[in-house]
Amino acid sequence: MNERPTLAVTVGDPVGIGPEITVRTLAEAGTAAPARGVVVADPAALERAVAVCGLDVRIRVVDSFDLPPEQDGVIDCYDVGVLGAAELPWGEVDARAGRAAVRAIEVATKAAMDGAVAGIVTGPINKEAIWASGSEHLGHTEMLGALTGTTRQNTMFVVRGKSIFFATRHLSLRKALDQISEEQQTGAIEEALTALRVFGRDAPRLAVAAVNPHGGENGAFGDEEIVHITPAVERARAKGADVSGPIPADSVFHHLLSDRYDGVVSQYHDQGHIAAKTFDFDGTISVTVGLPILRTSVDHGTAFDIAGQGVADPGTMRSAFLHGAEFAKFADRIRAEYAT
Predict the structure, then answer these.
(1) How far is 246 from 215, CA to CA, in rounded Å?
(2) pTM of the model
(3) What does the longest C-alpha to C-alpha distance in the chain come to?
(4) Cystine design at 320: which of 95, 133, 296, 326 (Cβ 3.0–4.6 Å)?
C-alpha cells in the first residue's frame, strides 16, 4: 500500500447534499491530506456543487485511479457517465439520480475489489430514488454485499477511536426484541471481536449492553439478560475473550468513552445511535464490517430540504474520509478476514 492511499469517494444521491459535502471535504483536505480522494460521480454534479458552495476549485475528469494528483485547488472525478450535463432539480426524488448513485457505488466497489483503491467512502443515498431506478436492494449495505459476494455484514460505528456494534439494526423495536437469543448474541459478540481485531485491537475489550432498565433487575424488568445475554457473554469468556456484560445501557457508553472498553455491542439501532450521535454527531462515522473491502460512510441522510443551498455541514463526510485514510492500512487484513 502506498504511503498516501487512494480512496474512491461516492457522493450518494447527486441532488442531495452529498456533492456539496464531498467537494467541501476534498477542497479543504487538499494535497496535505493523509489520503488522495477521487470522486466517483458525474462531473456536472460536482461542478454544480462547487458553484453553490462558492469554492475556488477546478474539477479534473480522470479515467484511472492511478493518475498522479494535481496541485491544491483540483478535485479529481472519475466520470460514471450517467447524467451527462443534465441538471436535475435539487432535493427531489428522481430515478435518474438513483441510477447515478447506484452506478457510482458499482464503479467504486469494483475499484476496491480490484485493488485500484484502498477503500471507498460513501455519501448519503436516497432509497426511494435507487428503488425508482430499478434497484431491488434495501440500501447501501445490501448493495455492497451483493457486489462483493458477501451475505453477512454489520455496522461498526466509530466515534473518538471507540467502536459501537449492533446486535439488531433496521427493525421495529418490538421485532428487535423478538430477535434476541443466546445464539444471536453469541454471533454478535464474535463478529464484534473479529472486527476489533481486524481494525487493530489485538486484545479487544468488549462490553455488551443490557436491553432492559437497570439490566433487568434480576428479572423484575425483563429476563433477556438472564436467559439470553449472560449465557452468550459467558460462552465468549470461556474461550478467553475479554467480554463484559450485560451492562446497563445508561452507563455502558460512558465506560466506553472512559477507555474501559474498546467496543460495545448495542442491542438495537437507536440504543447505539443516540449515544454516539449525542456525544459527537459530526465525528460519528459508519464502517461496514464483513465486506472484503474497506468502506467508511457518513451516517446521515440526503437532507433534500437544504440541498443546493451550499449550507450543508461537511463534518461527517470529513470524518468518514479521514477515518478511511486511517483505516487504509488495514485493507489487507480486511480482505484476508472477510474474503468470500
Answers:
(1) 7
(2) 0.91
(3) 64
(4) 296
Contact 163, 156 (CB under 8 A): yes
Phi-psi region of 308 (alpha: psi -120 to 50; beta: other; left: phi over 0): left
Give the tens place of pLDDT for each residue, 69-110.
Answer: 778 899 999 999 999 988 899 999 999 999 999 999 999 999
Crossing angle, helix 43-53 and helix 18-29, to 10 degrees?
80
| 205-209 and 154-159 strand pairing | unpaired
> What Cα–Cα distance (Å) separates residue 131 from each residue in 99, 301, 303?
9, 16, 18
CA pair distance 50, 74, nearest whole angstrom: 11
| Residue 120 bridge partners (DSSP) | 8, 295
In CATH, the number for domain 155-280 is: 3.40.718.10
18 closest CA partner among 146, 124, 93: 124
Range 1-153+290-340 classified under CATH 3.40.718.10: yes
CATH 3.40.718.10 boundaries in the chain = 1-153+290-340, 155-280
The set of cell numbers assigned to 227 is 436467559
305: phi > 0 → left, psi -120 to 50 → alpha, else beta; which?
alpha
C-alpha distances in angstroms, 249 versus 85, 204, 242, 246, 274? 50, 20, 19, 9, 11
The pLDDT tens digits for 245-283 are 999 999 999 999 999 999 999 999 999 999 999 999 888
Cell of 178: 423478538
Spatial distance between the Cα atoms of 173 and 56, rounded to a whole number of angstroms: 47
Give the start-end residues of each E strand in the chain.
Answer: 6-10, 36-41, 58-62, 74-79, 119-122, 154-159, 162-166, 205-209, 242-247, 263-266, 285-289, 295-297
Place of cell 436535475: 88
